[in-house]
Structures are given as structure tokens and as C-alpha cells.
Amino acid sequence: MQAATVALFRAQFGHEPAWIARAPGRVNLIGEHTDYNDGFVFPAAIDRFTWIAASPTDGLSELVSANLGLAAPVDVTDSIPGAVTDWGQYAAGMAWAFREAGYSVGNLRAAVASNVPMGSGVSSSAALEMALAAYWQAESGLDVDQVAMAKIGQRCENGYIGLRTGIMDQLASANGRAGAAMFIDTRSLEIAYAPVPSGLSMVILDTLKPRALTASAYNERRSQCEAAAAVLGVASLRDATLAGLEAAVDQMDPTAFRRARHVISENQRCLDFRLALENSDLDQIGALMAGSHNSLRDDYEVSCTELDAMVEAALASPGVVGVRMTGAGFGGCCIALVNSSQVDAFNRSCLTAYKGKTGLAGMAETCLAADGATAERWVS
Ligand code: GLA
User: Fold this and answer.
1) Domains defined for the chain, CATH in brackets
2) Which of 120, 139, 217, 295 has the fewest CB atoms inside 10 Å of its own CB, making it the most exposed?
3) Secondary structure of the chain in the HEC alphabet?
4) pLDDT tens digit sequence for 268-300
5) Ligand 1 centroid – CA 301 distance (Å)
6) Each residue's pLDDT tens digit, 325-348
7) Is 281 a catalytic residue?
8) Catalytic entry in 47, 78, 86, 169
């Protein structure tokens, strides 16, 4: 992938790039839709990367992607939200977010290639943002650490792209560590690395159902959480309890009540999952992942027929330890933890059953927990 990215750069611009940067996608094992409520999440960066070969330029930024083609040339040094609508908005938005954070970054020529599936809930956007951040951090010698890079990426999503996301995806992509998942308190931004238990494999199950209406539905969920927190008189749902929620049932819109019940219970599942993983308690791991999926389906209403069908298919397949939808939802992928010795049988059985239920082929891919975003000088 690195060689292909450099080759694309040469073909497009006729010279060698100065830098090569890469950043991973992520899966989330548990803790979904909790990050914008100051809660707990448990992602792992994965060995699927977005690569950028890049050089600074005095002219407008010129961007080419192996998947998406050319973006319109843009001056990223003074672009404001709303100005760019093609995929160049990630470069313009990151440059804008760097400025908002007090750093100035320059225009670039860049070639982008990626094997992070797009629109599937495994953070292809965050991977692109963090690869760009790593490039600018290195190229401009900025005093910006990985956590600050993640904050800048979230600012880009919130302020420039218009998606009111939390910080999980960018933190995972920037701070990933090979072999480890990451228990993150999104209030303190403290990260505790937790090894993926030996003998278990992480399998991404792609429904091949593209996500739909994600932006509006996502932002609506966040507003509903904020409304619930206001009724409960807490700064965020992180500070709420199930008992407090039950006591306020009469004052709350029933939808906001269910949204809050998901977030409060999911935070607890995330804490319990951490212990279960430490103890290699496979039954508990499975039960918590099932609880998470059901809560996302019934209370948070971000699952869909295909994600539910994939979970059912996986639960009936050999070697499964736990499975749930991963990411924002509304289509995209599930994450399954599977006994490593049974992955092939699991994949066959799961995809056959999924096809029987939906008519869709689906896709199963094992991934490994990977290191986070990096950039280095390109030496041909
Ligand atoms: C998207 C967002 C994250 C998080 C998840 C849901 O991936 O970017 O911040 O909210 O959805 O857990």
C-alpha cells in the first residue's frame, strides 16, 4: 500500500514526495455512542491503513485519492467551513482545525490510498484525518502530541464536516498500539492499553449494506442525549445513574429516556468488559457484547436488519465468543471475537447464514490491533 501510494504521487505530480504518513482505522469492541457523553469506550486501531504521500507546495493544495480521484484544488490555509464539499474537505477541515488550535499549516500535494473500508463504521474518515495530522505535525515540526492531534481531528468533524462526533475514532487512530485494545475514559482522555487475549481473533463482519442518513440521525442522537442530561440535571450522561433515570421517567420524553438508558448501561458494560477481558472470562465477554448490541438495537435504534442478521448468523457459528455492531451503526460492520483456531469455520458458517437471511454476500476479515498514526521522511 505504501508503494502504491508513492507511485500514485509520482504519476500525478511527476516528482518524489517528501513525506509518507499513515494512520489506521479502528474497531470498537464495546462502548458505543458513549464518547460524546463523556463516557467509556474500548476500541482498537486495526491493521488497515490510510496512507498519504505528500509534499508542501506554494500553490493551492492538490489532492488525489486512489479511491475517490481528484479533489478540486483548494487553498487550505484560509478555507472556512462550508467552502469545500468534495473529499478535499478533510484536508481543508484539518488545516482549519489546526488554525483553530493555534497552529498554521501549509498547502500540500498529496496522494492518498487506503484499505480501510469506507462508510462501514471502521473510521476511514478518522484514518484520513490522523494521517494528515501526522504529516503536518512532522512537516511543520509542530509541538502537537497524539492526543492533541485527535482533538484537532474531532474539531474538524464537528466544526468543518458538520458531524457532532465524539473523540473515540481519532484517539484510537492516533494512539493505537500493536496487539492491544484501548480502554479510554473520554472525559479524562486517559488511555489504558489492554492486550487482546491470546487465542482470540478480532473478525470484522461487513454487512456490505452502506450506511444511510448517518449524519442527521447521528446528530439527532446526540441532541437527545443532551436533552436527557438536562432533565436529569447532570453535565453529561456519564454522571447519570439508572436509578436516577428511573426516578425521572415521568419528566422525560420516552425516546430520550431510552437513549439515556442505552448510554448509562453501555458505560457500565464497558467497565465490566474491561474486567472480563483481564480475567479472560469468555462467557461474560459474550454476554456484554450481546447486551450492547441489543441495547443499540432496541433503545438507541442505530442497528438495522442487516446488522441484526449478521449478529444472529455469527451467534450460531462455531468458535464465536461475542459479537455486536461496531461504530455509529445504520449499516456497516459488526465486530466478532472468535476462537482463533476456528476462524475459518466461523467465517464460512456466518457468511452462509447471513446470505440466507439477507441475500447479501457480506465479508469477513480478521484484523490485528495496530500502532497509531506516524509520518516519516520519504527516502526513495
Ligand atoms: C462514530 C463517531 C464516534 C462514536 C461512534 C459511536 O464512529 O465518530 O465518535 O460516537 O460513532 O460510538
Assistant:
1) 2-196 (3.30.230.10), 200-367 (3.30.70.890)
2) 217
3) CHHHHHHHHHHHHCCCCCEEEEEEEEEECCCCCCHHHCCEECEEEEEEEEEEEEEECCCCEEEEECCCEECCCECCCCCCCCCCCCCCHHHHHHHHHHHHCCCCCCCEEEEEEECCCCCCCCCHHHHHHHHHHHHHHHHCCCCCCHHHHHHHHHHHHHHHHCCCCCCHHHHHHHHCECCEEEEEECCCCEEEEEECCCCEEEEEEECCCCCCCHHHHHHHHHHHHHHHHHHHCCCCHHHCCHHHHHHCHHHCCHHHHHHHHHHHHHHHHHHHHHHHHHCCCHHHHHHHHHHHHHHHHHCCCCCCHHHHHHHHHHHCCCCEEEEEECCCCCCCEEEEEEEHHHHHHHHHHHHHHHHHHHCCCCEEEEECECCCCEEEECCC
4) 999 999 999 999 999 999 999 999 999 999 999
5) 14
6) 999 999 999 999 999 999 999 999
7) no
8) 169
